[in-house]
Amino acid sequence: MEKGDFARPDFDLAPRAVLRAYVQMRLDRRHVSTGGAGLLTGACVQSPAAVPTPTQPRYPGAPLKISEDRLMRITVCTRPFRPAGPRLDREQFDAKTVIHNYGHGGSGWSLSWACADQAVSLAQPAEGSRAAVIGAGVIGLTTALRLAQAGIAVTIYAKDLPRETRSARATGVWSPSSRIGLRSAVPDGFHDRWEGWARSAFATHQHFIGSLGAPVEFIPFYSLRSHTPPPGGPARNDFLHLSGRVGDLGPRSRTLPDAAHAFPVASARRGLDMAFNIAAYTDRLVRDFLALGGRMVRRSFAERSQVLALSEDLIMNCTGYGAKALWGADELVPVRGQINWMPPQPEARYGLYYEDVYVLSRGDGLVVQYTGPNDDFGYGIEDETPDRDEMRRAVRTVGSLFEGARV
Ligand SMILES: Cc1cc2nc3c(=O)[nH]c(=O)nc-3n(C[C@H](O)[C@H](O)[C@H](O)COP(=O)(O)OP(=O)(O)OC[C@H]3O[C@@H](n4cnc5c(N)ncnc54)[C@H](O)[C@@H]3O)c2cc1C
Question: Domain 80-171+279-327, what architecture?
């Protein structure tokens, strides 16, 4: 999950200036501040059809069971953030062609398919040829699948196999512009290229809705505004926030009347978010790849020359943050993120955001994540050691929403 991408305002109904301010407000996380209330209301007073009926359930399902004594595990990973945006280009080393596809920040799951398509079109492989994909995260898997679908004999080589990768530790939500680049560092034309990726990837994710294990699904999402919002403030880094360009994708969110929900908050919006059940999605990608004859080999490369010594002439570099050490990608910045896991709650499938904490009830677990006051949170931090204080803070904050409602 990533800042500002969890719910979409109603683009067609609000005046453009108000809308832009509201979008920016959400992206900056100031939508939880009291000062944002006027704008929030202004952007959302609409036709009677937009107001939920009084018969709507008070919780969207059962109350979420969030407490420290239910903690299953804590996972931490670094987002492979590249100020100039993901690297997608081609390098030639004698007979070896290397296609780079890394540096997707907090948007790797969301944009994966579109970047895989672009990587394959950069490679232009001949049908029946062989290719090596380095990396078994979501970028490596989708790139390998696209190659295999094009009739290429693909071997994935990776230090970590799919369930062990950083990709497996993601929040699992559609967040295509999360930490995707810095305004001051992306090349000309990036905004348009990004929009093309987002639209194309969004369409591809839809193919998995309704599949066995529900790799992708839309689930209700609540943006909750606190009576006493935590202090926020803009990020020091000029992160790009582009999600407003694709605000027409997917269902829109609505402000809820107080009587329509049970949360003890100042105000609430309800929408639908596209969620990725990472375990099921990963399994599906692996199965599809193997069914097409793909091979997967565990191998760690200490340096670039070992990669170039592979027998395949086409090499796809999908090593994520690993590209820093392997390929000398010094421009990559780690952005730490921690997820606290509770057991799955199939009876309560929804998500929420409240006081800088994001919650998503996925098929493979209840995800609770403190996201910090702005996008700088975790910036430059490579340490993947769990922080129990951060976990307690997150659990206390959102656990308080369900006090008195425990079952
Ligand atoms: C806390 C958190 C939450 C996130 N939430 C979301 C979200 O909700 N939605 C979203 O779209 N994105 C999200 N992201 C971002 C997303 O997880 C990443 O962009 C994505 O996982 C990057 O995938 P990747 O395949 O490039 O890298 P990785 O998953 O890191 O995979 C890299 C692969 O390369 C291999 N490798 C690296 N170096 C070597 C080497 N030297 N030799 C051999 N193999 C090597 C690794 O073993 C691994 O197999 C989140 C990230 C974090 C940290």
Answer: 3-Layer(aba) Sandwich (3.40)
